[in-house]
Amino acid sequence: MASRILVVDDEPAVRELVSRALRDDGHEVVSVADGKVALGRASEGDIDLVITNSRMPGMSGAELIAILSDRFPGLPLLHIDDPSQTTSREHRVPDDVVTLNEPFSPTSLRVTVEGLLARKR
Q1: Cα 80 from Cα 51, distance rounded (Å)
Q2: H/E element holding 63?
Q3: pLDDT per residue as tens digits for the range 6-52
Q4: Percent of the chain with pLDDT over 90
Q5: What is the arithmetic mean of pLDDT over 88-96?
Q6: Shortest CA distance to 60 belongs to which of 30, 39, 31, 83?
Q7: What are the residues facing 29 on neighbouring strands?
Q8: DSSP 81
Q9: How many other CB atoms are found less than 10 A from the CB of residue 33?
Q10: The pLDDT of residue 100
Q11: Cys bridge to 28: 4, 98, 109, 111, which one at CB 3.0-4.6 A?
């Protein structure tokens, strides 16, 4: 059974790369460019996993993760981060949220996503 994954990233190229890799693995992907839209989409209740970038204008990935964790306990969350950039306090996520560091391979994305989805099942 295909999972529905919400990909949130303000960079179109990254959003498309991640979305394509997930679709190639048979997942249904919904992609959006910002946290506010992501919250609305997640509220529809049919999302199995959310993948978000750290640094986005408006609402950061960390802020999005905090809200999603509060509103949807148990929803798997994957944080994508670039460790070469300074991580300010506003971009830090809780230790229990899985982080995939950039650059990452399609294989590491696949393994991480499947691990998170397996926890939910």
Answers
A1: 7
A2: helix 61-71
A3: 999 999 999 999 999 999 999 999 999 999 999 999 999 999 999 99
A4: 72
A5: 66
A6: 39
A7: 5
A8: E
A9: 17
A10: 93
A11: 4
Distances from the Cα of 22 to the Cα of 12, 57, 75, angstroms: 15, 24, 18
Is the predicted pLDDT of residue 59 greater than 70, yes or no?
Answer: yes
State the sign of the Cα–Cα–Cα–Cα dihedral 48, 53, 55, 56.
negative
- Residue 87 corresponds to which tokens in the numbers above? 């991580």
**Please, are residues 19 and 46 in contact by the beta-carbon 8 Å criterion?**
no
What's residue 120's pLDDT? 75
pLDDT at 85: 67
For the chain, the helix, strand and coil percentages under 3-state DSSP, each to the nearest 5: 40, 20, 40
Token output for 77: 């969350």
Give the length of the chain. 121
Q: How far apart are CA 60 and CA 44, in angstroms?
A: 21
Buried b (16+ CB within 10 A) or exposed e, 5-29: bbbbbbeeeebebbbebbeebebeb
